[in-house]
Write a structure and sequence with these properties.
The complex is a heterodimer of chains A (about 220) and B (about 210). By secondary structure, chain A is an all-alpha fold. Chain A is about 85% helix and about 0% strand. In chain A, helix 3 (about 60-85) runs antiparallel to helix 6, helix 4 (about 90-115) runs antiparallel to helix 5 (about 120-150) and helix 6 packs antiparallel against helix 7. In chain B, helix 2 packs antiparallel against helix 7. Chain B is globular and about 50 Å long. At the A-B interface, helix 3 and helix 6 of A face helix 2 and helix 3 of B.
């Protein structure tokens, strides 16, 4: 067993115990957070395997294979939740968000394990940017699920397409942050800027349609 | 270098399309879903272009495992199809028109032609995704001819057809690649494709205006 699995167990064990003390809604959110972390671990296995099969080096794998695998894996718990529990529309976005948060948290831990924790500023920038990027990708897909697609076949096609948007966005972020200098700065600013735009759009939407904002 | 300029221009025109769509959506207030679908179509295509261009700029080559940009470009057709379906959602009567079979005949024929260069899965995926919006758009045009659809939608359906045909044009030109030169028809057809994005907001506005 390599180090990261040990870290995963150390982090998830207290969270798993906390499930016993929680009520229904809180418990469900914690389960999604945990599933986000688990999906992060699983996607690192799958990405490594696919990179090996394709003969890709670490840099190319992080830019071309990881975004694809990570976005798909991140959505799997949500698909399970949607298909098995048939939740209310209002519950979907926050749960998608929790998966994204769990995923981003564990990805940041992996980054810390690999690169050390010496540079606080770099880590803070990376932490915020990666967190914002994963949350934005989840938010994009959740928005479509809640507001855009009204029939089942449209929901499937539309969600797949929105996932493609999220994958490309993730891929662009990964390309930019792999570089140095201004490109990396732009990369780190990209999710924060997108989150700012989404926040402003949401505020405007809430003001215009106060009745339709229960889900957000 | 010319490829980067081509993609740069294309991205600028698509960004114009997205911004115009956002402005129209905010100004018009009705049929928001259609506008959101157009914004998503543009964004999806733009992200595919941006990914491809960034790879060219930073590594001087196209992405070796180019799943991500192709996924973006392919799924753009799903958004386009959903957009055409949304624009056509008011129609009362649905009937099959034999003339529509031109679309699968054309896309199927092109698929067989492209199989000489590309893989089976990618080509099959493309043929299905391109047939859907072309079918809907041609059906819309025929419905206008029969008086079952508003005349104002003609411009939009023509823009969708032009976009899909321009995509086929770029694919065909890339099969006979003439190098990174301005004489390469690929770049000219690619500009036509980008120009259709400029037309889309205006055409959609006309189609959904009450």
């Amino acid at each position: 067993m390599t180090v990261i699995e040990n870290v995963f167990i150390c982090i998830t064990a207290p969270l798993l115990f906390s499930l016993l003390c929680m009520k229904r809604r809180e418990r469900r959110m914690m389960v999604f957070l945990l599933s986000g972390m688990s999906m992060c671990l699983l996607s690192s296995y799958i990405s490594s395997y696919l990179a090996m099969v394709q003969g890709a080096d670490v840099v190319h794998a992080s830019m071309e294979i990881s975004p694809l695998v990570e976005e798909i894996m991140k959505f799997l718990p949500m698909i399970f939740f949607l298909m098995v529990f048939e939740p209310k529309k209002e519950d979907i976005p926050v749960n998608v968000m929790m998966i994204a948060v769990g995923f981003a948290t564990f990805e940041n831990i992996c980054y810390l394990m690999r690169n050390g924790s010496g540079h606080l500023v770099n880590l803070a920038i990376r932490g915020f940017a990666t967190g914002a990027m994963h949350v934005m990708c989840g938010y994009m897909v959740a928005m479509g699920l809640v507001h855009l697609w009204d029939r089942d076949w449209i929901r499937v096609a539309g969600t797949l397409s929105l996932m493609a948007v999220a994958i490309s966005y993730h891929g662009i972020y990964n390309i930019l942050v792999t570089q140095t200098g201004p490109a990396a700065v732009i990369g780190y600013c990209l999710p924060l800027a997108t989150a700012g735009i989404a926040w402003a759009a949401r505020k405007r939407f809430n003001r215009k349609y106060p009745r339709r904002t229960a889900a957000f | 270098m010319i490829e980067i300029i081509d993609y740069g221009l294309q991205m600028a025109l698509i960004t114009f399309c997205i911004n115009a769509s956002v402005l129209y959506m905010m100004r018009m207030g009705n049929r928001q879903k259609a506008w959101i679908l157009l914004i998503l179509t543009g964004t999806d295509y733009l992200l595919g272009d941006l990914y491809w261009t960034l790879f060219l700029i930073f590594y001087g080559e196209t992405a070796p495992f180019s799943y991500i940009p192709y996924l973006s470009w392919y799924t753009c057709y799903i958004f386009l199809f959903l957009l055409v379906a949304e624009v056509r959602s008011e129609r009362r009567e649905r009937k099959f028109r034999p003339l529509l079979l031109i679309v699968p005949a054309f896309t199927g024929g092109m698929c067989i032609f492209f199989l000489q260069w590309g893989d089976v899965i990618g080509n099959t995926f493309t043929v299905v995704l391109r047939t859907l919006p072309m079918w809907q758009a041609l059906d819309g045009l025929l419905a206008i001819r029969d008086g079952q659809e508003k005349k104002e939608k003609r411009f939009f359906f023509l823009a969708v057809m032009a976009f899909c045909l321009a995509e086929y044009g770029t694919d065909t030109a890339s099969c006979f690649w003439m190098g990174d030169t301005i004489r390469n028809p690929y770049f000219w057809i690619d500009m036509v494709l980008a120009a259709t994005f400029v037309v889309f907001p205006r055409a959609l506005r006309k189609a959904v205006e009450q």
